[in-house]
Write a structure and sequence with these properties.
The chain is an alpha+beta fold and 136 residues long. Helices cover 26% and strands 26% of the residues.
Length: 136
């Protein structure tokens, strides 16, 4: 898992714990909802819809793509986990899921995970804990 905080300048999470934690919880819920749906036979646009609907229930609306394919040539125009994409997921497809939102114009939170589609679900390639550590 990768967690990225975006800022136009120096930030202290100690000054924004509520906004940061709320965004993190929304993105985590969306990620987990998407992971629950991903498996061979799922439709990429439907995965994106579930992710977006889940984060929106937590107060964070984002309709950009929720992930993109990765592999040898990830720059080629292949499938994305985005609304309207009708690609049916197949075993061994790999994706970088990335969910994020901007709490303020100069502050945002992004959560990501690299995954592999399997017949019965999803293999999460990253083995890091899904939590935000606030120090200080």
């Amino acid at each position: 898992m990768t967690t990225t905080l975006r800022s136009a300048g120096p930030i202290s999470l100690a000054n924004r714990p509520i906004a940061c934690c709320a965004s993190m919880e929304a993105q985590l819920a969306g990620l987990e909802a998407g992971l629950d749906l991903i498996r061979a036979g799922a439709v990429s646009g439907e995965v994106a819809k579930v992710i977006h609907n889940t984060t929106e229930k937590h107060g964070f609306k984002n309709r950009s793509r929720a992930g993109y394919s990765i592999g040898i040539n990830w720059m080629e125009k292949t499938t994305s986990l985005k609304l309207g994409d009708s690609t049916v997921l197949e075993p061994n497809m790999t994706f970088h899921l990335h969910l994020g939102s901007w709490v303020e114009e100069d502050f945002g939170y992004v959560l990501s995970e690299s995954i592999r589609v399997t017949e019965s679900g999803v293999e999460v390639i990253t083995k890091a804990p899904r939590q935000l550590f606030i120090l200080g």
